[in-house]
Amino acid sequence: MPRTFAADLAAYGPQRCATNPASLAEGRAYCQRLAETHYENFHVASRLLPRALRPHFCAVYAYCRWADDLADEVADSEQSLTLLDWWEEQLRECYAGRTSHPVFVALQQTIAQFSIPMRPFADLLIAFRQDRHTGRYESVVEVLDYCRYSANPVGQLVLRLAGVHSPELSALSDSVCTGLQLANFCQDVAGDWRRGRVYLPQVTCRQFGYAEEDFARGVADERFRGVMKVEVDRAEAYLRAGLPLVDQMPLGLRGDMGLFIHGGLAILERIRGVNYDVWNARPSLSKFDKARLLAGALWRNAFGPRLSLTDARNVEDSDTMGAASATEVAASYTQCQALTRRTAGNFYYSFLVLPKVKRRAMCALYAFLRHTDDLGDSQQPVEERRAALSAWRQSLDNALRGRFDSPLLPALADTVARFGIPRQYLHDVLDGVEMDLQERVYDTFAELAEYCYRVASAVGLCCIHIWGFRGAAPLDLATPLGIAFQLTNILRDLKEDSELGRVYLPREDLRRFQYSEEDLAQGLRNAAFAALMRFEIARAEDHYRRGEGLEMHLDRDSRPALRAMVSIYRGLLDEIKRRDGDVFSSRVRLSGWRKATIALRSLLARATTAPRTDAG
Fold first, then answer.
1. Could you read off the pLDDT of 401-428 as tens digits, one per residue?
2. Under CATH, which architecture does the 1-133 domain have?
3. What is the distance between the alpha carbons of residues 435 and 437, in angstroms, rounded to a whole number?
4. pTM, full prediction
């Protein structure tokens, strides 16, 4: 382990700190030294930070720094876990009023002054322990779940110190912290590999054909650049989604918050600047870079525009606003609405219960999704479909910068800007459709869940931005609900997908129930198939349960839309269950009358729970 931490552990570890309690002045001085001498993209307590808050930020940083070093810089895993247990015990002693370690002596005063609960400190330790027994992350969902413990609690602590902790700001803070953590993963690929960890999702690596042996040799080729571009873009989307947080912070903290976000964005630009080759040198910020960003933070603090929570949901920065005229945007919305009415099927009934502005935004989103799906499912050869999707991806990026080559895209760009939809979600959908171009099977449910996240959960995350939500919980609840919808679709469409050569049921499930792909292709209904379907139905039902509660976090005028959507898809799953899994005899569907009834009930619920907000 590095000499400095080894020395600190010898001086303040389990054998020493109890017999040599630190004073408050000594504890604060020690925490300040840690904060000022350890390399970070930006120091946690910059000169922009109000003097009165500096010792408290340093104390929080020192707690995190020690926990991180106990996980990363202790070679023996068992010893590391033992020390992390000791660190958690020190935390509990601190909250009980008994402490001697210099970090906790300083932190105790901070906890008391700002009424900080133990949960965010304890959550960090979950991630640090995980680092000792988990070295690979199969899906984006798993990586984001790790960030929930490794990074997001830090933002919650900052909000507590700033005195502005709230559900709305927590959601923005989580986005910033997740973005910073993802940027760090991209920055530290080589160092993490040496520690036996790969935080780049395995599914993304497989998508580009980048294997374990390539990591071992530090290969920086087109495959690696493909993986890195996806993950760098994802990190940028999360960082930009959190930009409105800067102007919701107290005046004295806006500069520091801006430094963290723009510092993270600068690191991502550094990675792009070396063509994603992070194997040969770790991208970092020079003193000049930091000075330039500091100057920028000072200028924005003094003269820059302010982003409110309402007006600044545009997370993609100023270049997202297009050059389309109001007439062009209106015409685009009209075309999207016509396409939606004609082809949306189950989705359209849930749109009917929304206020006009949100309804037309959903039509713009649906039109983009419909066109994307059509490109992937066309009768053209695979390579032509792949090229068409690549061109459509470029059209999307151009549209979000104000250059349009499709009549559907001005409305989408307006929707993205108006409702602050992170562009990464749209790219995730494109990635999912491209996955269908490969003749592939899913060996495990984790692999299938990643596909479901891209083609369904990412859509749900777009939807809740249009519908409006409060707090961070909806981001967690929308993911399993989207997976539940897609699992329902997969079960309903088993016959049709099999005829197209697609098998979405995980091979591990087929093996478990001794039901082969050949049996599926023949539409064989036997005891093994019935047992398999009961298992898959139960899994979908579990994901519906995990998404319960999302409705109550949405804007009141949007809740009936989700209620209608869930009712329709649960209705399909219930019908499959009623048939004991028989999806071969006839296609499972809900009648138009039943879907209209669901929409009407939801519309009546909207009328009785929310004021009318438009004439549409």
1. 888 888 899 999 989 888 888 888 999 9
2. Orthogonal Bundle (1.10)
3. 5
4. 0.57
